[in-house]
Amino acid sequence: MTNFNFRYATNPTDFIKYSTDELRNQFLISDLFVSGEINLTYSMYDRYIVGGIMPNASALALETIPYLKSENFLDRRELGIINIGGKGVVTVDGTSYELDKKEALYVGKGKKEITFSNAGSDQALFYINSAPAHKSFPTKKVGKDNAEIVQLGDEKYANRRVLYKLIVNSIVETCQLQMGLTELKEGNVWNTMPAHTHERRMEAYFYFGLEEEQTICHFIGQPQNTRHIFLQNQQAVLSPEWSIHSGAGTSSYSFIWGMAGENLDYSDMDVCPPNQLR
Ligand SMILES: O=C[C@H](O)[C@@H](O)CC(=O)C(=O)O
Ligand SMILES: [Zn+2]
């Protein structure tokens, strides 16, 4: 079963008037993983799609949705997949790719049949992002051995973390999609601090690996006018082009970042000094 919902984009002037519920309705994506379901959110931020795929005993096929007005999901799009569960298999027009936990697969425009299934006794959980594409690039798996690893942060600022660049242009050719995974070291809680914006690209964060009964406080808004959204484990949040995206957890956690827009330059960020945030 494929479920889909839609989010309009908003602007910074209206944004600051939102109530807690309005903020959550606009930006929070919950219930991504439901057994036997594909859950997709189509947003007007660069037409980015965020989704969760949780196969049961039978494989799940990624079908087109009405917002695309296309015969197949990838007729005019590209797709990034990261498995955060047990071993899984993604089949792309008859070719199978096994994905272990935290491994990624890029699928280019024009592929027709994409199916998702479990490959072992542990439940596979496929987190996906998709953006419009004008060109077809080869399908490519990015595992732990070909990820680009960056050590970030400092224990004394409670932000020591390891960033795995997976679907980035030094590793995979894409039209506009970029994805990766960041793991907080135990006892460290702050991600993406100093925070940044990049008006060239929107971004989506998906938090997972949070301890039970703990929470993430995610910060959103222009650097001098921020709001927060509390997230639970395995929830995602949309970040407009003009917004920071940073969070603090009540335990350590991991998250997947994904973005699309004007360029493929990961380092194109406008950093906000912590003491200037408001
Ligand atoms: O634009 C890049 C993204 O916000 C993330 O890659 C940042 C991140 O994972 C981190 O600092 O921990
Ligand atoms: Zn960013």
UniProtKB/TrEMBL annotation:
GO terms for molecular function: 4-deoxy-L-threo-5-hexosulose-uronate ketol-isomerase activity; zinc ion binding. This is 4-deoxy-L-threo-5-hexosulose-uronate ketol-isomerase. Its cofactor is Zn(2+). Keywords: Isomerase, Metal-binding, Zinc. Zn(2+) binds at H196, H198, E203, H245. Catalyzes the isomerization of 5-dehydro-4-deoxy-D-glucuronate to 3-deoxy-D-glycero-2,5-hexodiulosonate. Pathway: Glycan metabolism; pectin degradation; 2-dehydro-3-deoxy-D-gluconate from pectin: step 4/5. The lineage of its organism: Bacteria, Pseudomonadati, Bacteroidota, Saprospiria, Saprospirales. It comes from the Bacteria.
